[in-house]
Amino acid sequence: MLSPFEWTIAKRYLLPGRGEAFIAMVAGISLVAVMLGVAALIVVMSVMNGFRAELLDKIVGLNGHAVVQGYGGRLDNWRDILEEAKATDGVVSASPLIEQPLLVNFNGRVEAILVRGMVDEDLQEMRDKVIAGSMNGLRDGASKVAIGSRLAQNLGAQIGDVITIINPQGRSTPFGTVPREIGYEVDAIFEIGIYDYDKAFVIMPMADAQTLLLIGDAVGMIEVTTRDAEKVGEILKPLSDKVTGQAIVNDWRTINASLFEALAVERVAMFIVLSIIILVAVFNILSSLIMLVRAKTRDIAILRTMGASRRSLMKIFMTVGTVIGSFGILAGLVLGFVFLFFRQSIVNAIQFLTGQNLWDPQIRFLTELPSKTDPIEVAGIAIMALVFSFLATLYPALKAASTDPVQVLRYE
Questions:
Q1: What is the pLDDT of residue 147?
Q2: How many domains is the chain partitioned into structurally?
Q3: pLDDT of residue 336
Q4: Which residues, in sequence order, are bridge partners of residue 116?
Q5: φ, ψ for residue 13 (rounded to 5)?
Q6: Span 19-46, mean pLDDT?
Q7: Distance CA 197, CA 148 (A)
Q8: Residues of the domain holding 296
């Protein structure tokens, strides 16, 4: 704690006089540098957290936490495995699923697609992702499908249009294998928010998918959702042991391993780089305090002759530097949160001014810039910056405390 005398001197040094404008300017630059460093670190870490959370939410929301997949992409005894999955402790839901890459043709344009056959309950859960049409018409034998928004855009298809899905593995004839082509009416257009899904997925009832693929009563996999996505491996270990030899259990980490590992590495790298930026900003505090001590050498000597202790002088200059850093941190927090609040508007404005697409969903997977602020992480960033600011004050404070008033005032 500072005494009234120490606090008075500290306030005087925080507000330099007319002849010390250069020192004030350097201190101001120090504050701005810390502010920008803290804001940049908060923004980048929040965006990366948001990117991972959004990606996980959308991938898990569509694919579940894990899938039990049959060898050769086919499960004939899927009803028994489905009951085993539902009976596993920690499993919230399980449902059969068919997923097969095929081709679609509309007005002479052919695109690669991923056909998903889903049960009625899962089809109805897609309602909130529909942007045109309705999922109500997707019933067994109705020959109606829902397609992703980007796929509809690429094909030029709208609600009510009939698209032709081509299964290259058709029926065998004396003249060879004839591809199977079936027309389906587009009854709904949905948008998941992940570009790769929106440009490829065609969703239809399970029975229609079985008919299209000529697989009878079999399914491709069983989709499983657990109570905790982070513990999915531990929860599904008993099920994995039971289906050994019949199927294999793959969780979301395994399916998207390369993507989430790359995100983790990039997150650590960005944190280190931006922490160095804060460290560089703190060096400005060090330089401004050194200049202040040099400019105030005579005043420090006089204070020493008046009875000021070395401890008091150290506390004064440590307070000056720490206050500059603290104000920079507070300003950085405000700037970071403002940037995050208006992040999409800022991205759109930069895109408009530069003419460049900064957030291409074909590259970024998501259609908008995400954000998820972790309070613990923000507190850690603030504490780290404050510690750096405090450490930067030690040398100038020691230099001021070691001033010898005899040497300074000898010729006064």
A1: 92
A2: 2
A3: 92
A4: 99, 203
A5: -80, -25
A6: 84
A7: 7
A8: 4-56+259-409
User: What tens digit of pLDDT does each residue of 141-177 get?
Assistant: 888 999 998 899 999 999 999 999 988 876 666 656 6
Unique residue bearing structure tokens 């992703």: 148
**Residue 222: beta bridge partners?**
68, 96
User: DSSP per residue over 249-305, as a string?
Assistant: EEEHHHHTHHHHHHHHHHHHHHHHHHHHHHHHHHHHHHHHHHHHHHHTHHHHHHHHH
Lowest mean pLDDT among 4-8, 112-116, 387-391: 4-8
Same domain, yes or no, for 343 and 404?
yes
Considering the domain boundaries, does residue 135 fall inside one?
yes
Q: Does 95 map to a domain?
A: yes
Nearest CA among 288, 311, 313, 284 for reference residue 299: 313
Q: Give the HSE-up count for residue 368: Cα atoms under 13 Å, Cβ half-sphere.
A: 13
Same domain assignment for residues 201 and 309 = no
Mean pLDDT for 41-70 is: 81
What CA–CA distance (Å, rounded) separates 54 from 115?
23
Angle of the 375-401 helix axis to the 257-295 helix axis, nearest 10? 30
Compute the mean pLDDT over every residue in the chain, rounded to the nearest whole number: 84
Q: Are 104 and 110 in contact (CB under 8 A)?
A: yes
Q: Is the pLDDT of residue 365 over 60?
A: no
pTM listed for this prediction: 0.67
Query: Does residue 239 fall inside a structural domain?
Result: no
pLDDT of residue 16: 64
130-to-148, 149, 209, 386 alpha-carbon distances in Å: 9, 9, 20, 48
Q: Give the SS3 label for residue 132.
A: strand
Burial class of residue 255 in the structure, from the number of CB atoms within 10 Å of its CB (0-12 exposed, 13-18 middle, 19+ buried):
middle
Polymer length of the chain = 412
Report yes or no: 320 and 295 within 8 Å, Cβ to Cβ.
no
Contact 147, 135 (CB under 8 A): no
- Identity (one letter) of the amino acid at 412? E
Q: 289 and 383: one domain? A: yes
Q: For residues 284 and 383, state if they share a domain.
A: yes
193 pLDDT higher than 60: yes
The amino acid at 250: N
